[in-house]
Amino acid sequence: MLCTTCGTRPAASAGGQCAVCAPVSPAPPYGPTAPGRSFSGLRSPVGLGRATVALLWAVVATDVIALAAGANLRRVYPGPDGGSFYDLATANRAEAFYGVAGGLQTLAMLATVVLFIIWFHRVRLNAEVFDAGLQPMRPGWAIGAWFIPVANFWLPHRIAIGVWTASARTGTDDGRRTVSKVPLDLWWGVWVVSTLFTWVASKYYAYEQEELAPGREAVTLVMAADALDIVAAALAIVFVRKLTRMQGERASLGPAPLSSVSPAGPASV
């Protein structure tokens, strides 16, 4: 049963309200905290956040290199009319450059995925300290949710919303602050589209190679996927920086006493 006031946390009182919304005895503003509300389990996400952002920039850089390599390859590949004035040696060099660029992309992406998930798990653990009642899934899912086929297109987003909401409660007047979750939703939407588009483009390019007839259309499709990946990486940088900063601001206030939290429910984010 959810709280009858905020509708997000489990009910914990006879009146059907959660521990935050249930009436408590008045206390001086920012007085002694309620039992059990401690920030002792917090760990700073700043270092991981900075490293993740650095690797995301590496993803952007390798995507730019891949775009340049793709443009060069597209120039030497035959068009729809089959015409091309470049010799085989030139085409081989262009394909070799394209292969190196693809390898750099793979290395940067793998390193970024590993570090991003570690950072994501860290901020999820911090959110458990800020407000465990707002978290829809256990902390371990911040790692496992990414590896479930199909479900990984929405489960991590669901977890991120809980982390974002808990981290946004940083106001000094009543313990809350409204923070738009546009950076989160925008990054997630573009990432999903980019992932699916990249899968389609890579499958088409692989098919063309198997047919021994790769053309400009296949290369152009992969280049479009690279451009979309740049946008997704840039939005991920904004998301990581924003959430890391929010958690730092929230932690700097310390655990707010239950009496200073407004019964109006969780912040709208």
Automatic annotation (TrEMBL):
This protein's UniProt keywords: Membrane, Transmembrane, Transmembrane helix
Keyword Membrane: yes
Domain of life assignment: Bacteria
DUF4328 domain boundaries: 87-245
TM stretches of this protein: 97-120, 186-206, 218-240
The protein's name: DUF4328 domain-containing protein
